[in-house]
Amino acid sequence: MADITLTVKRTGDTDDSGSYWQSFTVPEIAETMSVLDALIWTQQNIEPTLAFRRACRVKMCGTCGVRINGREGLACGTLVRSLVGDRGGEVRVEPMRHLPVVRDLVTDPGVFYQRLNQVGAAFTPKDDSLEPAQILPDSKERKTINPHRECIYCGLCYSACSVAGLDSGYLGPAALNRAFALVSDSRDGTGKQRLQASAGDHGIWRCHTIFECTAVCPKGIPITEAIEGLKRKVFVNKLKSLIGLGR
After folding, report:
1. What is the pLDDT of residue 129?
2. What's the pTM value of the predicted model, to 2 decimals?
3. How confident is the model at residue 246 (pLDDT cuts 50, 70, 90)?
4. Strand intervals (E) in 96-233
C-alpha cells in the first residue's frame, strides 16, 4: 500500500480555540496496521508531542476512542486499509465531541462519568442476605440483561449522540444503558430510584431515537433498545402507581 496521510486535529485549549489540523506522511507498517499504530508511529518517528490515549490495543479498555474520518471509533480497532484501501489516502483523526479537550486527541471524561453516577451505576443488592442470588443463564431475565453488560465505557456513544451536544445535562446513552441493565436485574434494590433519575428532564425522554449510539458502539450493544426499554418501564411503573399497585 502507498503511504497514508494522517491528519490530526491538534489543540491544547479546553475550549477548542486555536485548534489546527496537522498532516503527517506515514508508511504502511503492515496490512493490519490500525489507526492507533499510525498514531504511535507518528509519535515515535515524527512528532513526539502528539498526545493521545492508549492501553490494551485489543478493543477491550475503550481508552483510545476518537473520531476517525468524521465517525466515532476505537483507534486500535480501526484498520487503515478499511478506510483508504490499498492505494493510500488521507485518514483524519480528531478528539471525541461533547467532552473538554485536554490536548490533541485527549479528552477529559469527567462529565461522562458524572452521568453514570447520576443513575447509580453501581449494583446495589436488595437486602443484606449473605446468600448470592442467582439468575439462571438460560432465563429470560439473563437474556435481557446480558447484551447491556458488555459496555467498556469508551464514551463513543456519548460523542456520537446529537442530544448530548444540544443538552449539556443529558445523561447520555452509556448511563441510560447501564440504568436499564440494573433495573432489569431482579437482584438490584434501587430500581425505582434509577427509574426516577432516568426519567428526569435530562433523561430518556430527550432521546431522539436516531440510533447513532448503537451504530458506533464497538461492542455492538443495542443502546437505543435499552433507552426504549427504560421508557416502557417508567410508563408501567407510573401506571401501577396511579392504580395503586405500586404502593
Report:
1. 66
2. 0.91
3. low
4. 101-103, 106-107
